[in-house]
Design goal:
This protein is α/β, with parallel strands linked by helices. It has one domain: Ribonuclease Z/Hydroxyacylglutathione hydrolase-like (Metallo-beta-lactamase, Chain A). Helices cover 14% and strands 30% of the residues. The two termini are 16 Å apart. Bound molecules: zinc ion.
């Protein structure tokens, strides 16, 4: 089964980071839905001393062939710096995030780069729990990586497709789910799961 032509999901690599001695990609995902074009997470667009040890190499959305104006809706899976650093590019457009995540990003120490979260003009639409954003496209809380993490679930007519952000940082985490969010993703029996830091989507092992 594949996603019907009506909805397509496109990964866009916007950076890589050094993690445990290896380069780890940073992807954002564009969901082309018949009613709107949705961007899930925004990567980062500049360097910051707080994350210099991760040696970011940047390919920001505003410096590649990417139609910024074509995005109608932004979703943040969570507000770690490598997921919200491009939010400023979408000032004035709706940015959906779980209220818990927004509260933590604004209040918890060492959580993210706060000036990237509340960059000038950035307006959030805080969500409490599950929410249907568009027909067949919903936000679902998936705690684990952070307490306020959410995922995007896209119904395809067959098994759903998930855009999961960091619900799993490595694909192997979904083979052996442990967090509430990972268990929830597996319970959805998805066809595949796009992750922010993996080149290829996770798929269940056929068995
Ligand atoms: Zn994260």
């Amino acid at each position: 089964m594949t996603v019907p032509a009506a909805v397509t999901i496109t990964p866009v690599c916007v950076a890589d980071l050094l993690a445990d001695g290896e380069r780890m990609p940073v992807y954002v995902h564009v969901i082309d839905h018949p009613e709107a074009r949705v961007l899930v997470d925004t990567g980062l667009t500049r360097l910051h001393p707080a994350v210099a040890d991760l040696d970011p190499r940047l390919r920001p959305l505003n410096e590649q062939n990417f139609d910024l104006a074509g995005i109608d809706i932004v979703v943040n899976t969570h507000l770690h710096f490598d997921h919200c650093g491009g939010n400023h590019l979408f000032a004035g457009r709706p940015i959906y995030v779980q209220r818990r995540e927004l509260d933590d990003a604004r209040n918890e120490h060492d959580y993210t780069i706060r000036e990237w979260v509340d960059a000038p003009g950035v307006k959030y639409l805080p969500v409490d729990g599950e929410r249907e954003l568009l027909p067949g496209l919903r936000l679902v809380p998936a705690p684990g990586h952070t307490p306020g993490t959410q995922i995007v679930v896209v119904e395809t007519g067959a098994r759903p497709v998930v855009v999961g952000g960091d619900v799993a940082v490595w694909s192997g985490e979904l083979d052996d789910p442990r967090t509430e969010g990972q268990l929830l993703v597996r319970a959805l029996e998805p066809e595949l799961v796009w992750l922010a830091h993996q080149h290829d989507p996770w798929r269940p092992r056929s068995g």
